[in-house]
From TrEMBL:
Entries under InterPro entries matching the protein: BBP2 (IPR011486), Porin_dom_sf (IPR023614)
Top-rank taxon, per record: Bacteria
Listed Gene3D superfamilies: Porin (2.40.160.10)
SUPFAM superfamilies membership: Porins
UniProt keyword terms in alphabetical order: Signal
One Pfam family cited in the UniProt record for this chain: BBP2
Signal peptide: 1-18
Protein name from the UniProt record: Porin
Protein source organism: Siansivirga zeaxanthinifaciens CC-SAMT-1
Length: 339
């Protein structure tokens, strides 16, 4: 009788444990916070302080990035993501969402999805762009400061997209969206069309916007257990022969230990006419930007020291004597905590 009672209790405990595991909550909260220190090495750090013409990490001295809180629910067939951002980096990320200041300026992403089948997922709402190697969240980028390619490509889209798994190796995304970065509603009546063809982690992206067309390649390769090489290249042309750009970036990263990785971003970015990204004020300028970043992980905290050199074809910066110059050296020390 004792043996039967013990076996029954063991069976009930196992059944309850299995039921608890099967009914585990699917709602989750995640996110990050980041702060940094930035100083020019070849230019002033007072009221005349300047920074490269790329997004984020541009404020002098000790500065704030953003607080990012992501609420998500993942069901068997349906789910949603509500991605909220607060702080200077977040404000820059949603710069085209001022229609409703109480809500639009904190919404980074807000979408619902439906897994129609094992190979097809439909997503509707506001989602970060599918183009480019870098993203808004600092937790997903190796370098803390961002590239020209990221800064002048799209940030976000609002619309409907279909992600299709064509096979184990091939994927396809097709989407119809509002004008790029118009995230809360459509004030123009025009629509953009996007497509992405993926093969084993390499992605060829197309965006046909009412005012521009962009073609983008994003990918990377594990050259060894310790060495990874990321790649990004893009070409943007504006309608009516307007200014555009072309650029490419390589991201070699080497893991020195389990907690420390060293990486370099080497980027070439060229404007067609005076696109305005580099800041020279003249036509057909270009810039070579080299960013060396160390990434030191301590549990959920990542410390990133970073040296950056931007060298333009024309005067885009100033030196310590406030004279125009073609180059700018700078240093950033960032702290990123993810949860």
């Amino acid at each position: 009788m004792k043996k039967l009672l013990t076996l029954s209790m063991l069976f009930m405990a196992t059944a309850l444990f299995a039921q608890e595991e099967a009914e585990a909550p699917k709602f989750s909260i995640s996110g990050s916070i980041d702060a940094y220190y930035r100083a020019n090495l070849t230019a002033p750090n007072d009221e005349n302080a300047i920074a490269p013409g790329s997004s984020f990490a541009n404020l002098p001295g000790f500065a704030l990035g953003m607080a990012n809180v992501v609420a998500s629910y993942e069901g068997e067939k349906v789910g949603f993501v509500a991605d909220l951002v607060f702080g200077p980096r977040g404000t820059d990320a949603v710069f085209q969402s001022p229609m409703y200041s109480s809500t639009g300026q904190i919404l980074n992403q807000l979408y619902a999805y439906w897994n129609v089948s094992e190979s097809v997922t439909l997503t509707m709402g506001n989602f970060n762009t599918f183009l480019g190697y870098e993203v808004i969240s600092p937790t997903a980028n190796f370098n803390y400061s961002t590239s020209y390619l990221f800064s002048y490509g799209p940030f976000s889209h609002t619309g409907l997209k279909a992600d299709i798994a064509l096979s184990e190796d091939f994927s396809l995304m097709l989407g119809v969206m509002n004008d790029t970065d118009l995230t809360e509603f459509n004030p123009t009546g025009d629509y953009a069309f996007g497509a992405q063809l993926g093969y084993k982690g390499q992605f060829l992206n197309f965006l046909l916007d009412p005012s521009f067309t962009e073609i983008d390649f994003t990918g990377g390769f594990d050259l060894s257990d310790s060495f990874f090489l990321g790649i990004n290249a893009a070409y943007l042309t504006v309608e009516d022969d307007g200014p555009g750009f072309v650029g490419a970036a390589l991201y070699p990263q080497y893991s020195i230990s389990d907690s420390f990785t060293l990486g370099l971003r080497g980027e070439y970015f060229a404007e067609d006419k005076d696109f305005g990204a580099i800041g020279t004020g003249v036509d057909d300028s270009s810039v070579l930007a080299l960013t060396l970043t160390g990434s030191f992980a301590i549990d959920n905290l990542t410390i990133k020291p970073e040296f950056r050199l931007d060298s333009a074809s024309d005067d885009a910066f100033i030196d310590n004597d406030l004279a125009a110059t073609k180059s700018l050296g700078s240093f950033v020390l960032a702290a990123i905590y993810s949860f």
